Amino acid sequence: MRTPDDMQALARAIKDWGSELGFQQVGIAGTNLDRDVAHLRDWLAKGQHGTMDYMARHGDKREQPDRLVPGTLRVISVRMDYGSGGDDEAWAALADGNRAYVARYALGRDYHKVLRKRLQRLADRIAAEAGPFGYRVFVDSAPVLERALARDAGLGWIGKHSCLINRHGGSWFFLGELFTDLPLPVDEPASAHCGTCRRCIDICPTGAIVAPYRVDARRCISYLTIELRGAIPEQLRPLIGNRVFGCDDCQLICPWNKFAVRSPEPDFRVRHGLDRAGLVELFGWSEQEFLQRTEGSAIRRTGYEGWLRNLAVALGNAPTSPEVLSALASRRDHPSELVREHVAWALSRHHGARKAAEVDERG
């Protein structure tokens, strides 16, 4: 029979093993999420989840971890840094209308696979030490309120932009969970330290952070360029700029990220020069090239059609040049109606800009 002292010792060991596996922090939370349920239900009731219908499914399981995995008593929450330390370079990419901006988390290997394997190794280590136990690994793979659980495990607080913030590590990190039936001692929840700061709210390109701690996904560039499968609302396209997969503005501006540490994880290093790639170059990828160069990457989620859609919008926002116009014209008759519509919009933007310039020249 496991005693409370046994559980205390096991909890300490779990944190040590997590550190050995490359996690920057490991914490343990209970399963009561009552204080987050009302916020989630109101967000869903207002339709602010957009077309992400999966957010509304399995409500009781999302709200109650022990219903998602019967027998769950504790949640072991982990964080793994992915920050590149190159915030200046990120700002430079955003300022260059001819370059493509890819969210920093998607520049390397797909984090889902990396964290899932490490969490499984952690579970194996626990079983080797404590004997067989009930558990399940999650990395964005089920209805889990991961930020609330991470907060309760002491990993950080939920910021006004809805990302988790750690006072010693900023917000450039991934989260993963190990649901377990072990009665481990829980950690103290993290306290909030956003204060009166509202930089993330003010900088959001599309005004998606509609109130502190409230993001309307229907306006969020990450949602529009990744989760949305249809046409991007026309009124939002000019605001997307050159962001072709996700958006980091709210994290780049956050003062707590001055404490973020460059990740030593090889899997999160930039692949295929995506941190410096040009829009015209990426728009020229064939579907085969897209599949080849995004193998093992989170970018695969948007699909080739969505990738071209996003790039067409960014090219529509780029400075007018023969190269940009030629690239867009090359996809004018693309088999996908979605791509054709966004290409037509982009071309109309450049033709409109030319006409306006001609009028200005004539005085």
Automatic annotation (TrEMBL):
Cob(II)alamin binds at residues 62, 140, 164, 175, 222, 247-248. Its cofactor is cob(II)alamin; [4Fe-4S] cluster. GO terms for biological process: tRNA queuosine(34) biosynthetic process. Keywords: 4Fe-4S, Cobalamin, Cobalt, Cytoplasm, Iron, Iron-sulfur, Metal-binding, Oxidoreductase, Queuosine biosynthesis, tRNA processing. [4Fe-4S] cluster 1 binds at residues 194, 197, 200, 254. It is found in: Cytoplasm. Its main location: cytoplasm. Residues 182-214 form the 4Fe-4S ferredoxin-type domain. It catalyses: epoxyqueuosine(34) in tRNA + AH2 = queuosine(34) in tRNA + A + H2O. Binds 2 [4Fe-4S] clusters per monomer. Its EC number is 1.17.99.6. The active site is at 140 (proton donor). GO terms for cellular component: cytoplasm. Pfam families: Fer4_16 (PF13484), QueG_DUF1730 (PF08331). One of its GO terms (molecular function) is metal ion binding. Monomer. Belongs to the QueG family. Catalyzes the conversion of epoxyqueuosine (oQ) to queuosine (Q), which is a hypermodified base found in the wobble positions of tRNA(Asp), tRNA(Asn), tRNA(His) and tRNA(Tyr). This is Epoxyqueuosine reductase. It comes from Arenimonas fontis. The lineage of its organism: Bacteria, Pseudomonadati, Pseudomonadota, Gammaproteobacteria, Lysobacterales.
